[in-house]
Amino acid sequence: MTLSHVELQRLYDYFLGEKIKEGIQQFIEQDLENPDYEYITDCIWKTDSMIGGIGGYFMPADPVKNPFPAGIKRELYRPLQYARSDIDLCDVRTFARYVIESSGMHLESACRLFLREKLPLGELRFNSTTLGRAVQKIERLGEFEEHIIQALYDFVAVYNRSKHEINQDPSRDRMFNAYDAVVSYFVVRVLGSIILQHLGEQESFICYEINND
User: Fold this and answer.
1) For residues 158 and 10, is the Cβ–Cβ distance under 8 A?
2) Rounded CA gap, 136 and 189, in Å?
3) What is the Cα–Cα distance from 183 to 181, expressed in whole angstroms?
4) I need a surface site. Which of 134, 187, 195, 200 has the fewest CB within 10 A?
């Protein structure tokens, strides 16, 4: 199984750390090409917990069990719970696009929060800003290194495809596969963690226990 998008390959090669790559490869090396194979996700959530902060590993896989029913934390972290649900309870091979879309919603929320905190009247101006526009505004602030901004732009390209380019032809390969989804998830977790730590969000510095519910 190979990555389907040049941006994801670049993010995997040059942005993700070696420990995260090891966790991804441990998952991908399973027999994912066999649709009847029931894959194991322990390595994903163990790797996720190494990043720290609130990620899918912290949340129950069942989205009915919602630890953040309201407020900014719901906006930030609920999408990561949906991503975990699509990986653990559904099938990431079939739901890859939705994992990427949910992951992107977390990053979009983190970027909006960053703009609300950094710019005057931000809360009024940036509640509905798209991820792409948010990244452009963040770049102009000059608070992040170039490789982080490039990683944000690379993910924006993939995220936009997950929302707008749906393959309607069942005879063609899917636009996204399990490898794409897992790499996207970890790219978002690392970027989200960088942004939230830059804002001093306390939970982003904590490593929690893995939730096995």
Assistant:
1) no
2) 20
3) 6
4) 200
Cβ-Cβ contacts under 8 Å for 59 (sequence gap 6 or more)? 67, 77, 80, 81, 84, 211
What is the C-alpha to C-alpha distance for residues 182 and 184, in angstroms, rounded to an integer? 5
Spatial CA neighbour of 49 closest among 167, 209, 169, 188: 209
The predicted model scores a pTM of 0.94
Taking each helix axis as running N to C, give the angle between helix 178-198 and helix 6-14, from 0 to 180 degrees, rounded to the nearest 10. 60
> What is the model's pLDDT at position 124?
56
The CA–CA distances, whole Å, from 108 to 17, 31, 199 equal 22, 33, 15
Kindly report the number of other CB atoms within 10 A of residue 202's CB atom.
9
Residue 172: the pLDDT is 40
- 195 three-class SS: helix
